[in-house]
Automatic annotation (TrEMBL):
This is Xaa-Pro aminopeptidase. Keywords: Aminopeptidase, Hydrolase, Manganese, Metal-binding, Protease, Signal. CDD domains: Prolidase. Residues 28-164 form the Aminopeptidase P N-terminal domain. One of its GO terms (molecular function) is aminopeptidase activity. Its EC number is 3.4.11.9. SMART domains: AMP_N. InterPro entries: Aminopep_P_N, Creatin/AminoP/Spt16_N, Creatinase/aminopeptidase-like, Pept_M24, X-Pro_dipept-like. Belongs to the peptidase M24B family. It is an enzyme of class 3 (hydrolase). Its cofactor is Mn(2+). The keyword Hydrolase applies. It comes from Flavobacterium ginsengiterrae.
Length: 470
């Protein structure tokens, strides 16, 4: 085996590993990433440098890592999606060569690439990502940079739990070199705060290129929700419903999901971040599905709540209608200039009135017992995306994408009539804010209970699938 590997390594080094074919053609362009670096640079203070690291790899099982997920800031600013990288952005041009950015990447290595996949390397980062100054990570330590001459060194929080590894191109070594070069003994909150502020102010406003990907990731997530609405029945397991989403995401080219899917029946739907998805039967309960794909880095975040048997009971319908009405009330104020906090205040108000009317609560303050979360968050590269929130004066701006996701959750043993127990409802849509109105990007998946019941009557191609019994 070892000999065979050596032969392969030898052959690979002679012939070079083939560049990959049949790749998607709708990735963000190098001009997009260049433009984001320019925008970042414009917000940097005079005589400063920003240092951006890739995310660490994480252990899944012994010598097996989780599927690698790039640091969204690194991806946004460079397009580089591999581990063990560091990006320097300078406010002013440096040295006689007048460079204002440097990228350190993983070195090309035929043997390693045979085991763990293709690497862009220096040439790839130049041709595909548009950088002029690219070096291998192992050269970062020797790279001549005097951090002390800058008025400000801007960097993100450095994780403290990255495994020690003395290979010079490993992330641990990159962190170590940076800390020693910059004389950092403990994290400087003003630096990390500034990094957060700049990246948040950029990422909260989506560019046209990002909007193309956002529309796609939300649209295909809606198709997945609709397919489950057609396919679901009381005998289906939560896990299988989850699997239909995953299949459809991948069918449309999504890399996976933007967060751990929440697929919970009945009482499980009342657990806000339920992730086990392991009930073997949904039964005649409501199924709450908070599932969104990640497409080329961009996450959707869509929740639909459906009756497994195709028909809402009177109690389920009453709760569902309150959540729907809360969402509609919030939509009405979705536009530039609305205070962000008004979204949740509006949702809370409608839900409190609705719950009082049904006799579930008597004091409006108790609304938090059944609606314990907020109504909205930014959405983009992170499902809970970066954006600036400075309290009540923070206003919505054009081309922000915010979720609108009111919910009511009545777990068993709640202090109300037990006919309401085990009802958990959330409806979540992804809203593009416009100057005078909004666009619901997740409009393709029905929200009205009547429309959900109508769609549930249709057959799904998943109903026809037959697998051997085991
Ligand atoms: Mn959400």
């Amino acid at each position: 085996m070892k000999q065979l590997l050596l032969v392969f390594a030898f052959l690979a080094s002679i012939f070079q590993i083939h560049s990959q074919e049949n790749l998607p053609t709708d990735y963000l362009t190098k001009e997009f990433h260049q433009g984001r670096r320019e925008a970042f640079r414009a917000l940097m203070p005079a005589n400063s440098v920003a240092v951006v690291f890739s995310y660490p790899e994480r252990v899944f099982s012994r010598d097996i890592d989780y599927t690698y997920h790039a640091n969204p800031d690194m991806y946004y600013l460079s397009g580089y999606k591999e581990p063990d990288a560091v990006l320097l952005i300078f406010k002013e041009a440096q040295g006689p060569e007048k460079y204002n950015e440097v990228l350190f990447v993983r070195e090309k290595n035929a043997t390693r690439e045979m085991w763990t996949g293709r690497r862009l390397g220096i040439e790839g980062a130049k041709s595909k990502l548009g950088f002029s100054n690219v070096y291998n990570g192992k050269d970062f330590n020797a790279f001549a940079i005097d951090f002390s001459k800058f008025d400000k060194v801007i960097y993100d929080r450095i994780p403290t739990d990255v495994a020690e590894n003395n290979s010079p191109d490993n992330l641990y070594s990159l962190f170590k070199s940076f800390k020693s070069k910059a004389g950092i003994t403990q994290a400087d909150e003003t630096s990390t705060g500034l990094f957060d502020k700049i990246t948040s102010s950029l990422r909260e406003i989506k560019t046209p290129e990002e909007l193309v990907l956002m529309r796609k990731t939300v649209k295909l997530s809606c198709i997945a929700h609709n397919e489950v609405m057609k396919a679901v029945g009381p005998d289906m397991s939560e896990n299988e419903a989850d699997g239909i989403h995953a299949y459809i995401h991948k069918h449309y080219g999504a890399e996976g999901e933007g967060y751990a899917p929440i697929v919970g029946a009945g009482a499980n739907g009342c657990i806000l971040h339920y992730w086990e998805n392991n009930a073997t039967k949904i039964d005649n309960q409501l199924l709450l599905m908070d599932v969104g794909s990640e497409y080329h880095g961009y996450s959707a975040d869509v929740t639909r709540t459906i009756p497994a048997n195709g028909k809402f009971s009177e109690e389920q319908k009453a709760i569902y209608q309150i959540v729907y009405d809360a969402q509609e009330a919030v939509f009405k104020i979705c536009k530039e200039g609305t205070p962000l906090v008004a979204l949740n205040e509006t949702a809370k108000d409608v839900i409190a009135k609705g719950l009082i009317k049904l006799g579930i609560i008597t004091d409006p303050k108790d609304v938090k017992l059944y609606y314990p979360h907020g109504c909205s968050h930014f959405l983009g590269l992170d499902v809970h995306d970066k954006g600036i929130f400075n309290g009540p004066q923070t206003l919505i701006k054009e081309n922000m994408i915010l979720t609108v996701e009111p919910g009511i959750y009545i777990p068993p043993n709640s202090k109300c009539d037990k006919k309401w127990w085990n009802i958990g409802v959330r409806i979540e849509d992804d809203i593009l804010m416009l100057k005078d109105s909004y666009e619901n990007l997740s409009i393709d998946s029905p929200r009205k209970w009547q429309d959900i019941e109508a769609l549930a009557k249709q057959k799904s191609t998943f109903n026809e699938m037959k697998f051997p019994k085991i």
